[in-house]
Amino acid sequence: MDPSTQDREPHPSGTDHQPRIDLGAGHAPLDRAVRFGEALGARVWLQREDVGTLGGGGNKLRKLEFLLGDALDRGCDTVVTFGALQSNHARQTAAACARIGLHCEVVLTRAVPRTGEAFERSGNVLLDRLFGARLTIVDRDDTELDRAVAGLRERLRAEGRRAVWIPPGGSDATGTLGWVRGGVDLAGRLDDVGIDRATIVVAVSTGGTVAGLSLGLARSGRHDRVLGVCVYRPREQTAEIVEQLMRDTAERLAPGRHRGDAPGAVGPAPDLTDEFLGAGYGLPTPDMRAAVELLARTEGIAADPVYSGKALAAVVDGCRHGGPGWHDGDDAPVVVVLTGGGPGLYAYPDVFGAELTEG
Does the annotation count 87 as an active-site position? Predict the structure, then answer.
């Protein structure tokens, strides 16, 4: 396969000079969630990153268009990346590598204190293997992880492979470019449906999606409120990571202009909340389960329990109970970025199983 790294027409995100392959991420629709919104007394739209045609879809495909474009540009034949055992990023990376013919190595950690046959072997783990990735699974122990990475490096050298190492979530300045482009795309869709200002809600883990989204919306001249719902780290730690990614990515787009900029100088930083994190990453909460169930029973859409489920919990709470700036002083519509991860539902049968209340 000879994937193109250039668009026929310049993209308003300013990312055209960066190597990129087309994985179909730009085709995710913006849909009105009429019945879900009626249940909340609000106008709600869904940015459907979950419906991509490659690997089950997900927000990481936008990042991978640039990450894998860069890998091919550098002549790499192997991709190495990292994630928790049920990582959506790992699954999408494995699928994208299968599409373009790159060998994929994934290091998965048992970062979530959950066990059981479904969690260990179903969901994203099953798809990782199906897409041909070679898995290295380790416990949540830094020493064991370092040993596994060292062994992997040695094996790849012995096999003569030229590898690119992608961080968890694809969240570096290269990957974040995908969501600068995604933010500009979303801005165009919002303009098309006549939404001048919205509250845009998205789950936040490693930070690349919300950082790029915020940059892309700002580059489009919009003034939406972006609310990031922390699902991995507390708000203060997440804010530092997001702001650094915004600076690094702005520097990547315009070298020399943003080096050393103070936080916020490259555009408004998103608001962040960790009120829906619960006991930690990948651990269910009652609010998450209720929100996922509400979306499923009003729209027929299955959201994942780790990311979008907690973002939806924030939406349900905000629409029903309000909060500082939730509607920016008016009844601005809410746009939820559904980041994908539906296969992860099958790893949580104890949460989403026969004990669900009947409709």
Answer: yes
Residue 16 lies in a domain: no
The amino acid sitting at 142 is D
Residues 149 and 233 in one domain: no
Same domain assignment for residues 78 and 46:
no
Number of domains in the chain: 2
Out of 142, 170, 198, a domain closes at 170
pTM: 0.93
201 and 158 in a common domain: no
Q: Is the dihedral of CA 302, 306, 311, 313 positive or negative?
A: positive
* Closest-CA residue to 90 (of 350, 358, 357, 343): 343
Residues 176 and 229 in one domain: yes
Per-residue pLDDT of the chain (359 residues; tens, 9 = 90+): 444 544 556 888 889 899 999 999 988 999 999 999 999 999 999 999 999 779 999 999 999 999 999 999 999 999 999 999 999 999 999 999 999 999 999 999 999 999 999 999 999 999 999 999 999 999 988 899 999 999 999 999 999 999 999 999 999 999 999 999 999 999 999 999 999 999 999 999 999 999 999 999 999 999 999 999 999 999 999 999 999 999 999 999 987 665 556 555 577 899 999 999 999 999 999 999 999 999 999 999 999 999 999 999 999 999 999 866 676 556 789 999 999 999 999 999 999 875 545 44
Within a domain: 10: no
Pick the catalytic residue: 87, 122, 214, 308?
87
Q: Is position 359 within any domain?
A: no
Show the domain range for 312. 25-58+172-347
Q: Is residue 11 part of a domain?
A: no
Residue 277 near residue 234 (C-beta atoms within 8 A): yes
**CB neighbour list of residue 176: distance below 8 Å, 6 or more residues apart:** 63, 208, 211, 212, 215, 245, 246, 248, 249
